[in-house]
Amino acid sequence: MVVAVSRLCYYSLKEEKQMSITLRDCLKLPSLSLGRVIAGHKGLDSIVTTVSVLEFNDTDELDIMTPNELLISALFTMKDDVEAQCKLLQKSKYNGDVGLVLFYSDVILGHIDDRFTEMADLLNFPIILLPERDMGLKYSDVISDVMEAIFYDRKVNNYFVSSTIERLSQTSEAVRSPSLALQIASDYAKASFFLCDESYHLIASSFWPATNFLDFNRVKETFEEKILTENTVMEDREEGIYFRTPFVGKAGNKLMLCAVTHNDILYSGIMSEVVEVIQLFTALWNYNLNVSAKESVIPALFECNEDLVRHICQFTGIKAELYNEAVIIELLQTAQEREIGVWLTQTRSLFEQFAVPLIADHLGTHIIMLYFNGEGTKDMLLEEELQNQLTGWQAAKFCTTYHSEQLFDKMGAVFKEYAAGKDAAQKIYPNKRQFTEEDMHYARRVQKLFNSIDAEKEYYLNLLTPIMDDREPELMETLACYLLDASSGLKAASALLYVHRNTVLYRLNKIRMLLGYDLAKMPMAYDIYMAVSLHRLRENEKDNL
Fold it and tell me: How many domains are there within the chain?
């Protein structure tokens, strides 16, 4: 079974009737119509698929994805801890939750702290405040209203495929994966799913319920001796009903979707829909599921799938010790697939000329490159050629370089930090096109401090008060350009600001006088640098409101 897919498929799906129940729809339900949105208005178009009550929370637990879940709480266990409330929002956003319905706020919280709503706005995480003193309104009222709307929507509309793709598009690229797609399918069909190649090498899986681990070997034993046909095969066993649907991947490789269920919800039609989701997923986000190709090791590394990485390396002859450099190239939205393919071909040819192993592929909105970078003359020449090729390529927005002698072990953490820090890095350094691991790490630190309610953030921002209060508005612009864009270079700052060098020098001297600090002398030089980074991030956020 082959489904022809492309980016056009997704956009045509978007043009159909609205997909699934959104938070905006939920606000029209009887129980929620009594409330008002006090923060996070930009997140109201998020899809809602389930409701959960949250009163006991461990903010250190960050590894349980709950995509599209609407939370209900009175925040009783953290009623006197605003910092814990803000951390709850950050954790919930990270885990895929889409909003919070807040009960009994006057009785439990007394008042809602501005820092709490500011955090929700930063995260685009809607807070729906129900009548503050209405103790007659129960959690069950909201749960029954929302879940009834969701069940009715599923009953009268059949757009599981389009809805799932929409939900995946709303998730962070750091967590968007075939495993997450299967997790959504498990929630929909109340079944466990397994994606594998024709030799039963497991690529991704999900379980229902989520903690009900099922040994894939049982699935393998059930079907391994059966002839592989083009149709869905069902096997009824004492421990459950087993399904297998073969299909063809993006690269023409043979794949299989297997499932195990204990109810009668799952049938061949849903298996076909889940297959279509996987095929659309791989086409839209350029995800390589051809585990016989060395390029498929890239997404496997990002997902920290050690067993799959080991299989791909053994099958394709990859030696992990030969790779110590990773380059992540962020592509412009306008980049064409043909153009990307040509650039990859040229780059692979370049590395072949230098006899340097390279693994490079297009994944999502990125090109990922893994190779060896040494200190020899050949390595330096190759790096120079690569930089020239990158600099002249207009489709590349920016690139980030990572170096490690244990590269394969760290790629999962590398991509997560990159995904978490890249937006902040672009806001702090808008003119920069080549970043380092240290740049992304610093940007992530600035972003975390900016999103916090720590007094440390206010300390840094208050350092700039004398400049902000001065009548010359150019002073702040000059300081930011000098430190962040020109790397403390007078000539470069002059060129970027389009003013004479002496004008920049005059402004910097006035800034030193106002601050009372030498911009080049530690430790205050670091504090001023951090303060300017936070200021630029804050100004950028204001522009986006």
Answer: 4
Residue ending a domain, choose from 135, 157, 179 = 157
First to last CA, the chain: 46
77: DSSP letter = G
Say if residues 467 and 476 touch (Cβ distance below 8 Å): yes
Q: Is the peptide bond before 357 cis (omega within 30 degrees of 0)?
A: no
pLDDT tens-digit series, residues 325-367: 999 999 998 999 899 999 999 999 999 999 999 999 999 999 9
Domain of 472, in residue numbers: 454-543
This prediction has a pTM of: 0.83
Ranges of H-type helices in 124-203: 139-156, 160-169, 178-189
Q: What angle do CA 211, 215, 217 make, to 5 degrees?
A: 165
Domain final residue, candidates 382, 401, 436: 436
Residue 448 lies in a domain: no
Q: Which residue has the tokens 């209203």?
A: 145
The CA-atom distances, in angstroms, between 241 and each of 205, 212, 213, 228 are 17, 15, 16, 18
Residue 379 lies in a domain: yes
Distances in Å between the alpha carbon of 334 and those of 387, 397, 427? 22, 10, 20
Residues 117 and 190 in one domain: no
